[in-house]
Amino acid sequence: MHRIILLLDFAEEYSKSLLKGISTYSGKNGQWTFCRMPLYYRETVGVKGILKWAKEWRADGIIGQLYNEMEEEFIDGDIPVIAQDFKERFSKIPNITGSYRKTGVMGADYFLSKGYYNFAFYGFNTIVWSRERAEGFESAVKKAGYQVNYFEHKKSRSTDIWYYKSKSLSKWLKNLPKPVALMACDDNQGVHILEACNHNKIRVPQEVAVLGVDNDVTFCELADPPLSSIVLDIERGGYEAAQVLHEMIKTGKNNFRDVVVPPLKVMTRSSTDMFASSDAYVAEALTYIHKNIDRNILVDQVVKEVPLSRRALEKRFLQVTGHPVYKYITKIRMEKLAQKLLSSDQSIFEIAMDLGFQDSTNIARQFKQLMGYAPGEYRKRFGANALPFK
Questions:
Q1: Taking every pair of C-alpha atoms in the chain, what is the biggest distance, in angstroms?
Q2: Residue 209 and residue 275 in contact, taking contact as beta carbons nearer than 8 Å
Q3: What three-state secondary structure class fits 330?
Q4: Whole-prediction pTM value?
């Protein structure tokens, strides 16, 4: 039985998800004993105090949020350590890190698929996970031929946005070209943007569509409107971190690989539930579709909302969205079905009926075509009780 010190932010959903993965691995490999050390020990007792406690407790390893300047002292402490790179990656001990640029690219591709041509990123340049997400976001946006607006017209420092700066932030949001697709470096900052938009009477998502990262479900759904977010494979990261630490303990070596947490998908909620269009008629049709998506909408009903013939609307709609009207309606309704699968314990049949699906025999087939999984598989894969490994 191994004794492991966990020096994490236990109030953060990210850390809680890591703990789930760590716990799953330990349960399969001897049921480890854990010491949950509060983060303030990092400041109050420092490295020497942590290592002294580790020696007295006879700890076998440490997983923690550590400052980079602590790296050498932990190496000299002769105990296996894995660090969460909450500021910068470590060079001499394994990191729990992420595919940050890939996450930024995923955010940009998501917005590009919704027809956006104005983009913004809200983050800071002094922390690796924000900086690299911004770089990935910008690379994909520039590849598509567009530019990214940054807060205060630069990649901001953490001191610029950890605290609420109402005047500068309000000015930036008001001056952004609209409609704009805004990616925040994480959910916390995404909610910050939503609050600022509400304060300044900026409509979300009609004027500013906001996307976060981490998919902290409670936090995202508490926001007004609920925040869309990129789902990360954090539990798997925790599982792999425990696996790497186990190997380090068994071999006595510290030169093991980093644990990389990849992005999985975008969880669409109300903050991005809109397609951007400069075509007024198509925009009107899109607004009607999104407002009535819980109903069994027919194309003829959409046509009645605009002063165009069905043929003319279909042509313009296809040019703007890349989908015929009926296929776009199906796509959005399947996304709504996916949301309800993960946010309720209703049966798939009950959810389908609530959303006005009348031909239940084709639901699973259509859902799998669009989402990559059958409804039941999707709920198991991405639901709150899902395990991303066997």
A1: 79
A2: no
A3: helix
A4: 0.83
Asked if residues 112 and 211 have their Cβ atoms less than 8 Å apart, the reply is no
Predicted pLDDT at 366: 83
Q: Which residue has the higher pLDDT, 190 or 280?
A: 190
Q: How far apart are CA 372 and CA 236, in angstroms?
A: 20
State the sign of the Cα–Cα–Cα–Cα dihedral 258, 259, 265, 270.
negative
Query: How many CB atoms are located within 10 Å of the residue 28 CB?
Result: 12
pLDDT in tens, 208-222: 999 999 999 988 999
Q: What confidence tens digit (pLDDT) does each residue in 292-325 have?
A: 887 888 899 999 999 999 999 999 999 888 889 9
pLDDT score of 49 more than 90: yes
Q: In this structure, how many other beta carbons lie within 10 angstroms of the beta carbon of residue 27?
A: 11
**CB 88: neighbour CB atoms within 10 A?**
16
Integer Rg of the chain from CA: 23
Helical axes 166-175 vs 187-199, angle rounded to 10°: 80
How many residues does this entry show for the chain?
Answer: 390
Query: Per-residue pLDDT for 387 more than 50?
Result: no
Q: Which residue has the tokens 């050390």?
A: 37
At residue 26, the pLDDT reads 93
Look-up: residue for tokens 């644990």? 259
Element (H, E) at 107: helix 100-113
DSSP class of residue 264 equals E
Interior angle at CA 145, CA 142 and CA 147, nearest 5: 55
Q: In what order do the strands lie in the sheet with 180-184?
A: 148-150, 119-122, 180-184, 208-213, 228-232, 263-267
Which residue, 145, 128, 126, 148, is CA-closest to 137?
A: 148
Return all residues near 13 (Cβ < 8 A) that are at least 6 apart.
Answer: 214, 216, 217, 218, 219
State how far the Cα of 130 lies from the Cα of 127, in Å rounded to an integer.
Answer: 6
Neighbours of 236 (CB within 10 A): 22
Provide the token pair at 108: 């940009």
In sequence order, the β-bridge partners of residue 148 are 119
User: Is residue 153's pLDDT more than 70?
Assistant: no
Residue 8 near residue 16 (C-beta atoms within 8 A) = no
Q: HEC string of 139-182?
A: HHHHHCCCCEEEHHHCCECHHHHCCCCHHHHHHHHHHCCCCEEE
